Amino acid sequence: MNASLPDVPEVRVVGLPLLTSGFDLVERLDLAMHLKVHGPLEPIAGESLAGLSEAISLRGRGGAGFPFAKKLRAVADAAIRRGVRPVVVVNGSEDEPACRKDTVLINRAPHLILDGALLAAEALGARTLVVGVTRDSTESSMLAALAERGLTNRRGSSIRARVQRNPVRMVTGESSALVRSADGGPPMPPGRKVRTSDSGVGGAPTLLSNAETFAQLAVAARIGADRYCRTGLREEPGTVLLTVSGAVARPMVVEVPTGVPLRYVLQLAGAPPLPQGVLTGGYHGKWLDAITAHDAVVSRASLEACGGALGAGAILPIGPGTCPLGEALHVANWLASESAGQCGPCYLGLPAAARGLADVLDGGGPTALEALREVTRAVKRRGACKHPDGTAAFIESTITAFTDDLAAHVLGGGCGRPVEGVLPLQQEVSQAEAPSGRRLAVDWTLCQGHGLCADIIPELIQLGPDGFPGVAEASVPRYSEARATRAVRRCPALALRIEEDPSAPSPRTALPLALPPGRGRGRRALGSGRS
């Protein structure tokens, strides 16, 4: 039930490999094998590198799809204007349970990623390279790759390179969270929107993109734009890496040319012949019904035209024997638990949205459905990062794609199908989300309904229709301990207490299916000389 994916699942390729070249020879391409497979790579001047990126229509492969050439030029312009050296950051913080493409690349082809990052650093005149990771396997592989190249973080090095390790949390993969942690702060979004191209690591203009993007740049720099564009669609040339999981016989990462029918990718992984739906783009993505998925092709434009999303490249079909709304509820609960807890739309809105979806499944009727829609509308475009927007989009897509099931739950007694738990989720609770071993209890003989507790710790206590707390006791996660203590101290009637919870699981136990609510040389800047 909702089992997690391994760090390095099976890897397949459709057509000729580009990113996965050499994967049939060794498990990991060290520097010597990398050079045998891909060959040497010469530096490329700044504007030429931007031109190459434009010629192959390279966009970021982390989800947002921002044109790489625009980002490159923006960083170069800011660096020249301010007279400071920029920084290059590789985002390998792939923390969504349904995504493993960047993790596979870092584990098996780390030097291809470093090739692209060092090309960009050479072009920009950057002397600092940071690689963000969140897993033991990716940290070990990237540290070994830096050592194989003789790259260190010592002063006086032509380029200082280091690995930034962060915890496995959905929000740590957000660009501002990675920049903040690289500067020694907590790995969470800072709550204000600042473009990294203007001010990133150490306040310097920062070129930040995900691992696959830099790997694609390295491939294109070796083979040239003409040859690169012979693969895939004219508008979106090249290949993409997809992580296929869900109701499949063989979860895998697959490299495919753009333009390949989505149904072929699903067949390759052993998906049901007629899936009930296909989630595209991951847990901040959108659902496609079976007929639409059958006609879609793998490309950003095609999937968007169909109502889906390429996003971070996750493809997840579900079979006809499971309740799609129940499957989505598991994901919604997990997304709510991944909140950084810094803004109302994320801290309060996402748990409320998850509870709203649960109310719909439990037969709350049209009133519950309208309340759910209102909550998802309220959280959009108001968060400190994109996590609330992505979660709201996922829930809205769920209730739009599965109208028959929605009607059965809203107007009847439910769809009658079990929840199989086919969508992968993390199997360990993060330290912040882990139970503290304590619970917050209400003494009903003293409670007078002042409601201060619900204002202080709304993720645990909500007021009922009568104005009194809706629960008698609630387990306290670690991130809520300080607020729970404050609620006890501020209760005018002294009706709250914190006590030991003997039933609390160990912090490293499996994540429950339904979570409680709330939770160098020749360096030039672009346009500065060589062409």
TrEMBL record:
Claim: Disulfide bond is one of the keywords in the record: no
Pfam families registered for this protein in UniProt: Complex1_51K, Fer4_15, NADH_4Fe-4S, SLBB
The entry's keywords: 4Fe-4S, Flavoprotein, FMN, Iron, Iron-sulfur, Metal-binding
Residues covered by the NADH-ubiquinone oxidoreductase 51kDa subunit iron-sulphur binding domain: 325-369
InterPro entries (UniProt xref): ComplexI_51kDa_subunit, Nuo51_FMN-bd, Nuo51_FMN-bd_sf, Nuop51_4Fe4S-bd, Nuop51_4Fe4S-bd_sf, Soluble_ligand-bd
Domain of life assignment: Bacteria
Region (Disordered): 178-201, 499-531
Cofactor annotation: [4Fe-4S] cluster; FMN
SMART domains: NADH_4Fe-4S
Ranges annotated as biased composition (Low complexity): 506-518
Record-linked PANTHER family: NADH DEHYDROGENASE [UBIQUINONE] FLAVOPROTEIN 1, MITOCHONDRIAL (PTHR11780:SF10), NADH-UBIQUINONE OXIDOREDUCTASE FLAVOPROTEIN 1 NDUFV1 (PTHR11780)
Family: Belongs to the complex I 51 kDa subunit family.
Protein name per the record: Ferredoxin
Lineage: Bacteria, Bacillati, Actinomycetota, Actinomycetes, Kitasatosporales
